[in-house]
Predict the structure.
Amino acid sequence: MRVSSLPLLVLLLWAPLSRAEQELAVYPGTVHTRIGNDLLIDGQYHRMAYFTTKDSLEKVAKYFQGYWRKQGYPVVVEGDLKSEAVVSAFYTREGLQRAVVLRAERDRTVGFTVLKDLWLYEKPPDAGKGRFIQIEGSIFSADVGSRDEAGSTQHRTQVVERGLDVVRQELVSKMTATGYKPVRESGGKLDGQRNLVLEFTRGAEQVLTTLVELAPSQVAVSQSWVGTDRPDGMPNADAVRQAREAHAREVQQRREKKP
């Protein structure tokens, strides 16, 4: 872990409070659903949850703005307060940022509450030692990770300025070179866009990659990695096994139907 230039004593006093005991902000009368546990996004720790309400976006934004200001915290409001808004409060003493991200969806307001630790930072894995393949020609990349008692998960989203088939070939070559075994591949078209789903395993690790052709020379890549410390391997081993068996049966049935 690496922190800012705060004395070690201050870190020891405040870090446990900021990460272990602080709760997410709640909008009255709604059910908040947690997204993962503690998420690691761009090296910083976050907690997130989402909720929906029939109250207007402006009403929800003003509630959080007033609630945090009454507690004496600096508050920033961004957005048009009609279709979208972000309300942020800075807990400078605890080294926290609380925020709610709001969007208007038909007759409802969808909100994401976020708790971000501003003091703690974890360096990303060294180049070449990460869970995913960094594809050439990437113009956008974002990583998210989480961990619970069953193991850990990581997700990477990229947009690549290359053709779908070229990206697929690069992924397969580099994944197999690092010890992963391809176990399943499927594809088709959705709303006129080509897509591929590739599954790889390596020991107690599983990587699921989805490729979507945004344009003839632009591809969206979503990679999900799951790993576990459990001696019995993958936490979803049974589901993975059943899916593979079903896929194998479908392939065999298609072969038998051919003249």
Observations:
- The first helix runs from residue 8 to 21.
- The first strand starts at residue 2 and ends at 3.
